[in-house]
């Protein structure tokens, strides 16, 4: 297997780039290179966790219920603790904290959100990505959670032609940036380098910075992982196209809703360091979804919590 350090040492163009000299804005220096060969050389892609596969099968069960979901989640103590933590967060405002997963589902999260949280938490667990930074695990997770909440609020106002299945929305928001987490898992040096580029070039869009720094986009990495894991087609479409406001393929309503929520979060503390899309593309996207600016602002206000 080709190692990251070996490949960098053999590539003069890459060798002159590091976290110390990558401090200028893009355009002042040449792109460092392309990591596609590094990605292809990896033979340690994490398999889909068994509990994630079980939850996916459960999601397709017409008899799925809160009791059944709680029974699966409670097989995993770590997952149980994480679910209770989110259910008891300030956003949901429970006066009496939930003490069981079933209680959390019924009184706080709701079935769709609880299932999405369980799926995302289980799927992301095997990816050993650094926690810190604009695209670190902590920021990606919090961004995804807020994006799912914002998408849920926006979806309440979508016209009939732009509706998307409500059960898909939270999971789409939570998993859209799994490509960054895969990068951190497989190529930690490239991950740190890209993280630094993003922090130094926050006025640019993620796809532009990705292509400059890596030779491909994090959306391609996410799509690759979801194809290997055989995740649902709608989630694959979101992972690959959530930075494309002009997307017209299958599952367009869900993809575009994710894209809009991403862009709106650029104006909040939950942004991922760079822009989701060009700012000029936001208004046409809002109109395409049959929404207006006032509705978007109201939805943003609804998800703000004391934790912000």
TrEMBL record:
InterPro entries: HDOD, RNase_Y/CdgJ. SUPFAM superfamilies: HD-domain/PDEase-like. Gene3D superfamilies: Hypothetical protein af1432. Residues 45-245 form the HDOD domain. PANTHER family: PTHR33525, RIBONUCLEASE Y (PTHR33525:SF3). This is HDOD domain-containing protein.
